[in-house]
DNA sequence: CTATAACCGAGACGGTACGTCGCGTCTTCGG
DNA sequence: CCGAAGACGCGACGTACCGTCTCGGTTATAG
């Protein structure tokens, strides 16, 4: 589960004084839920702060006390979805990759995920703070899947160990970009389904490449 | 050069009558140029129709006579950029792929391309007409690169011929998603540069995979 | 019948050259009729030149070739209504005045007359050319009724002859302002009907005053 | 002083809840002042909501929160001018009437009054709500002058008492229409000045008529 | 048990951009 | 040269959200 990064959970602001009425925790969760619901119902561009506040049964002020703008709110609201991804051990590298590809595709099939993800990424091209938030809240968290899968494959003897830690990191980044990029492109740009057959083809291509490189 | 798909160039609307003052062609090109300039200067979210009109020296109504909204306008304005991509014969499949990867990355480094592309893709998740427009104006046009590269590699003997035309099409789609997806993800989501080294690593991975699959 | 003062009937423009296609006379009458119809249907503020052109089956250009703007067009369209007023000899000054009061009130009950009259008068407070046009096309034309009525009353011996021509003119102006003003105010501002009873009361007041003054 | 009839002062809407930030009273007065200033500077037809807002140092939305359209705003802005009219006791009916005629003419000489008054009256011919607003905000308030002047004249013995209250009301309405109508017509339609001489002539005519009728 | 302080809802505020409408002008083709 | 058709630059419209700012009122801890 993600520890949501709201203003009030930041160390420097949470303890600005122990007196006064504390912030409502129900409000936090209600707002994030309302944001996801609004994304499903309206999409990114039609989503308004006022509407989210209404859906959450909360005043607009309460939103702005916690998030500085729409983008930050949406990142937090969507980030939690990506933590559902897991990497159960299916016994082989191929099966593991195929599993995560299908899981990721299923996630991107949810409207609140796909519309929000692309929109905040688009926005982040002009907003460094937002890009950093996306990386820490979403991207970097999922690299664990790559690292875990590689470690497992190495333990099985499917992939060789890499001695140079920098090379290992670069390799992991590359794999991550290939997997995430291909699935996102397939789903959002090509707008074709990621079914069993496509996942199988893609996985074969990737794992074959990895095997050839490693040898 | 792209044949821009404005309202008035659509076959079904261009002949609403040959009478009356014809639409200004200079306005068309001025608007598209102004749109690209505004994207560079302001980015997607700060771009306004009024500002584009001012930059183009044109009335706002003239924009709305041609494009129904910001998204369609931006797609048309940006589409032409993607037609600059070429596939010069560098003598080998690896060199060809690496070349197109670097070209594509260079394109995505241009601010008007990256911010606009992601934004319209995000919007297209809720707008079928927009998605179709993106596909026809941008995506499908670039698949030619994959087809051309494969044909060349087959002629060189680097890749086997595929008899089943459907399988060949699926394969081309897959390669397209992998290349485009990985580069986009690297540049926009991971926000890391696509330099010579990364291009080399990625190309090796991909071509190795293709070679293993074909055999 | 009013000789409409359009651009093309002005001596300096009608003969700008005897060559070329002559202006359509049907267009003139169709435009004025369409203007009155639009006034009835839409009122002054909702009336648009484009709508008038459409109703008249004419291009907007054709309107502007004849009238410089909305106000001038409306004045001409409405002026003709006021020429319907007549002063049949009813045998006495009181009966004559009462007759003209009722006639004028009936005219003001027509929506195209009342809404247009007030609107152009309002506009004329800032537009001298328009005020002059209103005076010549509408106001001055109706003063004939006062002059005719007075002459008749003098012939009957109901009113004394006035020797000083300037005093006579002032007196006629005053009577005109009182009659027209009272009826207009009753109908448009007070928004009460001008019925037989009111016309009788008003006429008595006015004629009594005239009689007292004259003696 | 006029109790301005804005949306928020209407009994049925002022209590839509005592919560939330209350409306700014300074904004109200600033808007009405700005409206009068804009009427003087621009006249009715050139007056725009945006300009009034700018002059008042207020957002356009603040105007629309209080008045649904230009007409209602202008009625409220102008209504207060008419409350300046008074009827000081000048010792005789003739002097009183002459005084009020000159006062009224002076008021109509002010550009914000004359252009606005005619325009809203013109508009009111198609808008019942507006006509009612004009009557309650402007017209009915001034009938007090007639009633007061008559009472004074009766006290002096210049006019007989009227036993039938309905006849008295009708008579007051008639006098009001005659005075207001004649002055308005003289100033706005005939566009001639209401000077001492005209006021004297008109007053003599009216008072003579009243005297003849009463006897 | 009260004072203080931060919270909460509601909603008005100054702004910015929207997409539309009408104006009066212009440019084309055809009669 | 006129007339229809309709695109053009312009400017105002009335609306929708933005993010901020009062309000009155609530809920905690501190004294």
Automatic annotation (TrEMBL), chains A, B, C, D:
Indicate whether Transcription appears among the record's keywords.
yes
- Please state what the protein is called: TetR/AcrR family transcriptional regulator
Q: Fetch the InterPro entries from UniProt.
A: Homeodomain-like_sf, HTH-type_TetR-like_transc_reg, HTH_TetR, Tet_transcr_reg_TetR-rel_C_sf, TetR_C
This protein's source sits in the domain of life called Bacteria
**Database matches in Gene3D superfamilies:** Homeodomain-like, Tetracycline Repressor, domain 2
Q: At which residues is the DNA-binding region annotated? A: 48-67
Instruction: Indicate whether Cell membrane appears among the record's keywords.
Output: no
Q: Which PROSITE patterns match?
A: HTH_TETR_2
Q: Which UniProt keywords apply?
A: DNA-binding, Transcription, Transcription regulation
Q: Which residue intervals define the domain HTH tetR-type in the entry?
A: 25-85
